[in-house]
Amino acid sequence: MGFSQLYYTSCERGLSGHAGYQFNAATPGVAQEVMAEVEAMTAYDPPRSIAYDSDAAQIARSPVNLCYLPGAPGVLANVVFVGNDYSRRFGNYFAHALVSDDVRRDLAGVLPIELWGAGLWTRQPADDPVLPTVERPHAGDLDRHLVADFLAAHRGARHLPALLTAVDRALVDPTRRVVIVERDAESVARWIAAVSYLMPADVVSRMSFATYEHEPRYSRMHVVGTVAETAVDRSAFDAYHLFDLLADEVSPVEPHPLAELLVYVGVESAPELWHQVDALADGSETGLDGWHAVVLASMGADGADADLVARWLSRHAHRLGAATVARIGFELDVRACPPDLLSELAEVTRAVGAHEFAAWVEEAWVEVFLDGDLGGPGFVLRAPTARERAAALVTERLKDASPPKAARLLDWARQCGIETDDQLLRRVGAETFGPALLAEPFDERLATALREWPGMRPGVVAHLVAHGDLGRLAAVLRSTAAELLGLRGHPAMSGAATVADARLGTIPRTLALVRVSTGAAVDEALLVELWPDREWDHDEASLLLRDLEPESVCVPPLLDRFDAALRAEPTDGEVFDLLCAQVREHPVIDVLPAATRTRVHDRFRMVTLVDGVLGAEGRDAFERALPALVRSYGSSGQQRRATILTMLLDRLATVDVPRRALLVAKLDDLRAVYVGDAVASLGQEPDPLLAADLLHLSWQLRKLSAKNVAHANVALKQVQDATLTAIRKWRRRRVRVVIALLRDRGLKDAAEWFGSWADHETGNRIGRFIRKRLPSKETTK
Q1: Least packed by Cβ within 10 Å: which of 238, 358, 490, 574?
Q2: Distant-in-sequence, close-in-space partners of 52: CB < 8 Å, separation ≥ 6
Q3: How far lies 495's CA from each of 89, 477, 514, 524, 556, in Å?
């Protein structure tokens, strides 16, 4: 027990038996390797300002190096510069060292740094080489109050959290030391004391330090002090953390939260804090990270730190016991913790008997979980108060929840063992899932929820019946949810079922609209459901105009649909003409927009004109009526001409050839389109019947030309030349069919004329050459 002592200096007599640097005296029993360690750690070089000509006062002001090297054994040493040795050689120093197998035990509550300036230290060699042991050395004048005053007056005090953090890191990574630069070694000692007073005892006992070294970069200590005039490499931040508290220049170190807290507590109050902490610690704590949660647990953590303490409490609850767990736990803002931590904490604390606190944690878990995205596993609630709170919150949150969130809430309640009564489920169905199903009938998530929670279905059906229009109900009937809800069998769904059948193609859409409109208003949603991607075609508009009630047709939205149909370009002129004729006789004509009414009337007048001419009784009546049609066509604008031309082309096949010949002779545009289309068709695929029609028309034009009918000769040339050009390369077999068709129509002369032309102009060159040299029928007779 106690400290062994060692004196080291340059002296005339010592343990080595010769003069020079050596141990002057020692307590017997100190091992040689320990003595070598002491010799190495106490080497001293004075600052540059101390020279061989310095006087005694200057030498006395040289920095004192109080150094500490923990271990077994550990060493505490006080090194002072004494100037000249026994031979008056300059540079001598005196080291007084204490060695113990257990420094912390033998200091008996005194911290290593508190031996700064202690009365036990000497600087004089001993005459007796045998030194006694030292029991329980007394501290010097350095204490907590003095250090507190020092910090209060020092501008560098704001760097103390960073200094604590850097020291903590140096204990983990000894290669990155902490270097403190101050005006003198005493100030360095006070900084080391500040760190020692704030840190836990185990950290202090492991922290090596030196209050002065001439070249800190070569030091082995965790914390090294020096003065401004020594060799400090201020760019070597990768080798050490620099705290030049004289120049207010420090390395960038992010302070640890516990370091900031300890500085806030202060050096004078720290003992009480660590006394409380020791009651909770299990001895495994190391460094600021290891102590952080324990310190917070002893003080009570706010929301920002609750997570850290709760995790620590969950791990240590089994050894702390119910009372301590509850005392610490009720000081925590557990609602700041994530759900997974709270569920674990509730289970652990209940297991140690802290039932009241466990119930409180369960209630917090309920609120935190429901405030989040409802992700993660559920948790079976044990405490009645937590179950009641959960049931109340689920009921409350379901009021404003979206369908996905409502489904997650219900799933969560089931996982937690919370019952949801049928009344609540019906309300959720009516208020949440019913409107959602009308808005998004094909959202499979809704069908999944209805499958999982059948209690919601009556509420959903009630909402659909009360608020659903036919169009949206029909969409619902085509969804997956319809079968789950049994909608097709519901009396209120018959109209919607009809619309749904129309969308599926079971019945015509027009018939469905007529059926559901009987006794019920038609809205836009219904029309969109029946025709989601297009307007009505003219055939549908004609059928609906015939079958729908007139009063419903004359108001939107049906009126708008009829207007759109009438403004659309016809794809089948006959159907469109029929529709226009219907509209003129229907009350809807009076409420259509003016432009649409004009379009209907113009179309009807054009149809009347064209049909009046083409349907005239007898040839004379036709020839008398035709000039009016020609004049009307000639005086019309481009759009009206196109309409008349389309009407004539649509009807031309029904007109006999003599009238057709007059039409193509009198109307150049009709002739150009009719002949152009026909000849183009012949060029794509040989068609003997069409060729016979064109040749028949040519023969009739020949007759008109012979009677000097105006334009007949021009028309004849165009029709005949175009037709013969298209036929010229036909095979003889097809040509013979055309000749036969002409004969069948009683056009013997036309057939012979065409046959003669074909003999000389159709087929390939060899065939035409042979036919020219064969004797004719007249020659062989």
Answers
A1: 238
A2: 90
A3: 120, 11, 11, 15, 20
